[in-house]
Write a structure and sequence with these properties.
Length: 190
C-alpha cells in the first residue's frame, strides 16, 4: 500500500469505522479481488466474435464514462460538481459497471456473469459506503450539500491531464489486455 496517496490511508481508516471489517476488507482489496474475478471470467469465457464485438462496444462506452469522470475530478481534494458529477455521485463506478457488463457480454458465459455480478455488487457497495463516509469526514457540509443537489454546478472543462493524473490509463490498458485475451479465446484454443 505504499503507493497509495495519503488520503487513501485516511479513506481506509474511515472504511473500518464506517462499516466494519467486511466492508473495510472489500474496499481495501477491491483491485486484487478484481484481478481474481477477471482471471476466473477469462477462464470461464466462451466468447464468439459477435459477443466479443458487442461486449467491446459496451465496455468502451463504460470506459468513456470513466475517462469523462476522471477528467473532472481532483481526487481527495474537493467535492466536484462538474461533468458527470452533476448527475451522479459516482460516475467512475457507473462507468466500471458498464465496463463489467461489456466484459460479461463478451465472455458469453452465465457463470462468468454471476461471478461478475457478485464481485461488482459487493465491492462497489463497499467502495461507495467507504468513499461517502470519507468524503463526509473530509469535506463535511460541502459533501452533504452536494448529495442534496444543492449549490451551483461547476463549469470546469474536461482535462486530459487531470484524467492522466487520476491514472485512468490503467483502466484503458486493463480493458485492452482483457479484450485482447478474449479475442485470442475466440480465435482458437488457448
Amino acid at each position: 500500500m505504499k503507493s497509495c496517496r495519503p488520503w487513501s490511508f485516511e479513506l481506509l481508516r474511515v472504511a473500518e469505522s464506517a462499516g466494519g471489517r467486511v466492508i473495510a476488507f472489500l474496499a481495501r482489496r477491491r483491485v486484487p479481488l478484481g484481478f481474481v474475478t477477471a482471471l476466473a471470467t477469462a477462464i470461464l469465457a466462451r466468447p464468439t466474435w459477435r459477443s466479443w464485438s458487442a461486449g467491446l462496444l459496451v465496455a468502451a462506452i463504460g470506459e468513456l464514462v470513466r475517462i469523462w469522470a476522471a477528467g473532472h475530478l481532483e481526487k481527495g481534494r474537493e467535492v466536484t460538481r462538474s461533468g458527470p458529477y452533476r448527475w451522479t455521485a459516482h460516475p467512475l463506478y457507473v462507468g466500471s459497471s458498464i465496463m463489467a457488463l461489456g466484459v460479461v457480454v463478451a465472455a458469453h458465459s452465465v457463470v462468468a456473469a454471476i461471478l461478475a455480478a457478485v464481485y461488482m455488487t459487493a465491492t462497489l457497495a463497499a467502495a461507495v459506503r467507504t468513499e461517502e463516509a470519507f468524503l463526509r469526514v473530509r469535506f463535511g457540509g460541502a459533501y452533504d450539500a452536494y448529495r442534496r443537489s444543492e449549490g451551483a454546478d461547476v463549469n470546469r472543462r474536461f482535462s486530459v491531464a487531470r484524467a492522466l493524473r487520476n491514472k485512468e490509463y490503467r483502466a484503458v490498458v486493463g480493458l485492452l489486455i482483457g479484450f485482447g485475451f478474449l479475442a485470442l479465446r475466440v480465435a482458437g484454443p488457448i
